[in-house]
Records
---
Amino acid sequence: FSLIRSYHEKVIDHYERPRNVGALPKTDPDVGTGLVGAPACGDVMKLQIRVDEHSGKIVDVKFKTFGCGSAIASSSYMTERVRGMSLEEAGRIRNTEIAKELCLPPVKLHCSMLAEDAIKSAIKDYKSKRSIASL
Ligand code: FES
Ligand code: FES
């Protein structure tokens, strides 16, 4: 019994071939940036969304995660999920769904929480930018 085998292959896949790694220009008016940390371990995740102002849908998404494999897999999975979603839909994604999809063990639940916090924080940043722009 190896430790690796206790991880679901989807985690390994997202960890080895993370989707949408990178950054969007933070100062673009249609980009929202979420930067969050996990108090449990100090890992950090940055997740950015670009929103089409007419449709209100997320048209691009990038992340950078300085953390464990489960955090990287959770953020990679999150970026795939939210592309094309409205902000409301994206804001409703719960970490428990991610954990279930990736079969994360209980000690790795907080890693998926990082992805939920990051998307919420990106949405909040986008909305506050928009409200400043419309003043
Ligand atoms: Fe070390 Fe998360 S605690 S990578
Ligand atoms: Fe802390 Fe995964 S984010 S161990």
Note: The chain has five helices and three strands.
---
Amino acid sequence: AITRHYKFNIVMKNVTRLCHTKSMVTVNGKFPGPRIVAREGDRVVIKVVNHVPNNISIHWHGIRQLQSGWADGPAYITQCPIQTNGSFVYNFTIPGQRGTLFWHAHISWIRATVYGPIIILPKRNASYPFPKPHKEVPIIFGEWFNADPEAVIAQALQSGGPPNVSDAYTFNGLPGPLYNCSAPNDTYQLKVRPGKTYLLRLINAALNDELFFAIANHSLTVVDVDAVYVKPFTTDLIVIAPGQTSNVLLNTKQGPHNSSYLMAVSPYFTGQGAIDNTTAAAILEYISSPTSSASSNSSSLPKNLTLLLPSLPAINATSAVTNFTGRLRSLATPQFPANVPQTIQKRFFFTVGLGSSPCPKNQTCQGPNGTKFAASVNNISFAMPSTALLQSHFLGKSNGIYTTDFPSNPLVPFNYTGTPPNNTFVMNGTKVVVLQYNTSVELVMQDTSIITTESHPLHLHGFNFFVVGQGFGNFDPNNDPKNFNLVDPVERNTIGVPSGGWVAIRFLADNPGVWFMHCHFEVHTSWGLKMAWIVRDGKLPSQKLPPPPSDLPQC
Ligand code: C2O
């Protein structure tokens, strides 16, 4: 294992998409940002220097951060933000993870433009548990706003209504040919040779949308999700929620072959609000001879742009989502075991969903029935603290920062999918759940339909978890656990709580620190669909959170 050094300069940069130029926050002037490439077991050291007016922090999404919680990155959870002209060195190792993850800003909506791939290769001389690909290609999906995303969320929080939706989806930052006013170099092109295997490293970095992805006339084989190998399966359709990543194999057609095909993404959404219901496309271009490769450049699209679009499901096609997620299984081999906690010490039941909060006097609010949109876990809408929770926890100074009375939800027979209650109000608080070191946890998350029924991609920092069960309607504590998969459930860091349904996960709390958990729809996080776990130190030195680095930003 080696140490890899990176320097992230946060700078403003003019970027043009959809014929619209804006000055936006970037890393090193790049959009999407630079790739982090490391092997399993390597140490990664990234110096982040903030040259923009905004406060910044960077999260290494999905990295376990075992005993390195100070490097996790969510603002006001593990660190205070890096202020203008400030800097912070993130320093962590990558043990036991292989595949694709991503990094993104973790403060307000800055991640709309500040994100990039994390590519984790197997150890030197270790091989993939699938055929060695000819080439590996990261494809990071995002959302493009013509407006400043910070202004979009500020306006929404002010009015209490929903935020304006994005103007396009993107492949590696490019919206593609299906949008009005799309310049030729606004299209991502993947050039491939016939008869080869490509490893596509897919990342959904969109702010607010689950996505369907497909390539016309090609199937894909899923081999990895969230940097954990899965039992390979072949599919025409990929479903990927924001915060999720997946490695898929693409076998190109036998040559000589000269055609091009479209790849496309479109949203999955079951809620009632407005959504960016557009399709972004990119081009899969076959190159038969080295000469044709040399003569094509990225600003000239192939002539035959009567390209076939892949067929994508309807926007609300929940069955397509369930079919896809139902096929995901851990590889669960002796070399790559699925260490599912078999006995559980702590069980939790969390309701997740939208709600509202009262409209201040003398104001008009654009949320449900003249209130303000809010969102909650167990009816607590998480209020961001004024200083970082991890620091307060480490110093033993929680007073005025957070409380440990996160409500437990007795499994009362409440019909979460029935008629909404009259009172949709949530309570505000900075409440956490405290776990002893090495507690085995089972958590059932139930979507409430209080304002609208929609799926919530919940992301847990600091851990991978096993998805042992899921279903629609109300979770039944007497019967549903009988069907849990404790053998080869998929292991990941972000899971969609199904629209009008529930999901059950298990994890071992073997990582001391403060760990954020939130909906990876950024607007739901802004509305309060977030909470934090505190995992106490264990007895051995190797089970304790080390002291903070000396350059940790202060609030
Ligand atoms: Cu990718 Cu807390 O986020």
Note: Residues 149-159 form the longest helix (11 residues).
---
Amino acid sequence: DVQEELKQLREHLPAWVEASRLHAAKGKVAGYIPELAGTPANALGITVMDASGECVTVGDCDLNFTMQSISKVFTLLLALMDRGEEAVFAKVGMEPSGDDFNSILKLELVEPGIPFNPLINAGAIAVTSLIAGSGPAEKTKRITAFFSRLAGGRPLVCNEAVYRSEAATAYRNRSIAYFLKENNVLEAHDDVEEVLDVYFRHCAIELTCAQLARMALVLAHAGRDPLTGEALIPSRYVQIAKTFMVTCGMYNASGEFAIRAGLPAKSGVSGGILALVPNRYGIGVIGPALNRKGNSTAGVHLLETLSQHFGWSLF
Ligand code: GLN
């Protein structure tokens, strides 16, 4: 049960973190966003939070990091709440791509111009265009308010330096977005640069492991914040998001992660990973060194260790 697991976590987690930290040496901090390149490569921190808000926190947990691709799960949820399932899935597919997260290669294979899924960059940019609001500032404000609410209420803030750094160098994402525009996935009324601006800003929203764990906890409890009792997201949409996390959340290493850990999870190029154990825990991890597929090497190792020790795999 939860109390016994928390006890074991308190006992073993420090050793597991140190063992996993060694795996950071096999990875590299993302360099394509210049501002991320300075992050300490062998940092590793984790928070596991249960339904009562009790936390086990180990390692470099004071580190603030940007959400990057983890934000895509939550913009998907907000877009579903704003527009409904039909409108969202008119713009993005439901299939893993088998390509890198920023792939431009296979954009046309599902349907003409329709990105494979909402968690690759192409799909996430399309989803961002669906967020309700009168302009980019209001959309960003709605996204930030939604994320902050899920993270426990304290207002989250965009890291301006990371945002500017990405916006100034995002040639690939710009290419993808203009391609989406050509194919009317971004529509006549969507200004490409404005959509990208909202996208870069939500990727640069900064938080801690504990805040990430709290967001995960809401997903672990079908959209209801177990600490406040508030229903924040319809359970059907959480089900959709969790399914994407299993099939696409770790990019084209999602199959391997499903076999080794078997938990819904989403990684980002900052080295963050959000994971959850349904009906039990929200988990936030940070470990900036990434493997070739763009996932935290130490973070993946740590989550696999935990899941295998406790038998958390869903499968
Ligand atoms: N902001 C990043 C990008 O668009 C997010 C990618 C990621 O975290 N994998 O390139």
Note: Residues 2-21 form the longest helix (20 residues).
